[in-house]
Write a structure and sequence with these properties.
Elements (H helix, E strand, L loop, with lengths): L1 H15 L7 H18 L35 H17 L3 H15 L35 H10 L2 H4 E5 L6 E5 L5 E7 L2 E9 L6 E7 L6 E6 L8 E4 L7 E4 L2 E4 L1 H6 L2 E6 L5 E3 L9 E6 L2 E6 L13 E3 L6 E6 L6 E11 L24 E9 L12 E2 L2 E3 L5
Helix pairs in contact: 1-2, 1-3, 3-4
Pfam family, one: Glyco_hydro127C
InterPro entries: Beta-AFase-like, Beta-AFase-like_GH127_C, Beta-AFase-like_GH127_cat, Beta-AFase-like_GH127_middle
Protein name: Glycosyl hydrolase
């Protein structure tokens, strides 16, 4: 991914400079082909990549086991940081929301989970499921310590990932492209005129983002705001635009200068923050369900569910089960998060099922769902922060009804 980022830099140079490089058209095709293969066939739902520990790399297409004892799940922190770097470069080549969506997925899940909330412990590997040999725990340091300084460097440069901005073709017009949402402010100059743009939000818990542009009235400014794919196009822009002063293109809501001149203060409310079930590609042959809310992927831990002692391998979910939200605070901290609660079913194998056999009987899963339990899920980034015995899982068995 780091090498591909360098290739993307060369393509960016070709796009922005007068001097053309003869091979960049082929480079761009290769970048897109490899990007699509990675995101469509080799990426975990947390934004992690690389399932093979032996060479810290990819396996074959759709080979995405959740844990070591299931075949491997490496998902190294540094790899997801490289994906973010590559996505940021590709946004300069082609402003397409699919790149920023993956950048956000990696940041809020596989990258954020790699550092403890107090910044003193880390993960190198970010598995989606624990096991007896690889429990969900953190270490203070590593023999090969690339991930801790890499993630701190990323946090230090995060402002460069939020947006890009500047002058449109030296025409005295400004542009601002917003890729990620948070609380931030940026200042820059166009044609000797100072521009200040501010965003304010409670992202990733709430979809309301408030914006304010401060610039001379004579400066025409175009602003593009990402509408995440997981929102399914649900958003509200206030004040409501008139005519064609606002429209969607490749995952970005484009606000033209006419709208901005009339409304230097405006808000965007992204919808679809209700909890949802997601599942891996069927070609992975996993048949699992995972909970998600907004850009966050959730996991289940034994610290909230002390009834579990087998790494949640014997627990299943039904997609018809209602999901409830609960706002919580970490003990001794002001860190607020939203936990999700739903029903799950724990099933202990019968004696006749415990041995290996060259086949299995297919029956109605609802009749053997097991004992119903209340399950508590927390954001994946929060794992291994609150004690427990290191039992954790992202994808639980999908209990299907054949009726």
């Amino acid at each position: 991914m780091y090498l591909l980022t360098a290739v993307a830099d060369m393509v960016c140079i070709d796009v922005t400079q007068d001097k053309q490089l003869s091979t960049t058209s082929e480079w761009k095709k290769t970048l897109y082909r490899l990007w699509n293969n990675m995101t469509d066939k080799k990426m975990y739902m947390t934004g992690g990549i690389g399932s093979i520990k032996q060479w810290e790399g990819f396996g074959r297409d759709y080979f995405l086991p959740q844990s070591t004892d299931e075949g491997g799940c490496y998902a190294e922190t540094c790899a997801s940081i490289a994906v973010m770097m590559l996505a940021e470069r590709l946004l300069h080549v082609d402003l397409d929301g699919k790149f920023a969506d993956v950048m956000e997925l990696c940041l809020y899940n596989n990258v954020m989970t790699s550092m403890s909330l107090d910044g003193r412990a880390f993960t190198y590997v970010n598995q989606l499921g624990s096991s007896e040999s690889d429990r969900s725990v953190r270490e203070e340091w590593f023999w090969c310590a690339c991930c801790p300084p890499n993630v701190t460097r990323l946090y230090g440069s995060l402002g460069g990932y939020l947006w890009d901005y500047g002058e449109i073709s030296e025409g005295g017009e400004a542009f601002i492209n917003v890729h990620l949402y948070t609380k931030a402010r940026v200042k820059f100059t166009v044609a000797n005129k100072q521009v200040t743009f501010k965003q304010d939000s409670n992202w990733p818990w709430d979809g309301l983002i408030k914006f304010r542009l401060t610039a001379p009235q004579s400066l025409r400014t175009t602003i593009r705001l990402r509408v995440p794919a997981w929102s399914r196009g649900q958003y509200t822009l206030r004040p409501e635009p008139s005519g064609k002063t606002a429209y969607l293109h490749k995952g970005y809501l484009i606000l033209d200068p006419a709208f901005i001149m009339e409304n230097p203060e405006f808000s965007l409310d992204i919808g679809s923050f209700a909890p949802r079930y997601i599942a891996p590609h069927p070609y992975t042959n996993q048949r699992t369900l995972t909970l998600a809310r907004g850009p966050l992927v959730y996991c289940i831990e034994d610290v909230d569910n002390p009834w579990e002692d087998n790494h949640f391998k014997d627990v299943g979910l039904k997609s018809s089960s209602l999901i409830n939200e609960e706002r919580r605070y970490l003990d001794g901290a002001e860190e607020e998060y939203i936990a999700l609660k739903t029903s799950c079913w724990r099933r202990t194998l019968e004696p006749h099922e415990s041995g290996m056999a060259p086949g299995r009987v297919v029956d109605d899963m609802t009749s053997t769902a097991g004992i119903e339990k209340e399950a508590v899920f927390v954001p994946y980034y929060l794992r291994a922060n609150r004690g427990g015995d290191g039992h954790m899982r992202v994808g639980l068995n999908h209990i299907c009804s054949l009726s």
